[in-house]
């Protein structure tokens, strides 16, 4: 992978993590609905939630970054590398949302990271 492709994939991963954080924070900030789940009221709330729109914006930008990366490197190399977003989301959930991350989940995250390294080293 060239330095440009690495930067594109890294930027894509960061935007993916930001998007997921925005979605989670945005949904957590929505007020609870009386009388259980009502679809129309829920969608009305969603369309008025700025953090959800920020998440959508991050995904739109990520889409174009991803297309640029795909134009420069094989999908069989890029897609496994993009799996590092899973690791980033676990870390961001811990740091920014205060979520508890079990030892088993950290081990799984490490396995994903090692797998990505193997794919990237083999693809070089």
From TrEMBL:
Residues that span the membrane, as ranges: 43-67, 74-93, 105-123
Main location: membrane
UniProtKB keywords: Cell membrane, Membrane, Transmembrane, Transmembrane helix
One function term, GO molecular function aspect: transmembrane transporter activity
Membrane topology: Multi-pass membrane protein
GO CC, one annotated term: plasma membrane
Localization: Cell membrane
Protein name, per record: Transporter
UniProt source species: Pseudomonas versuta
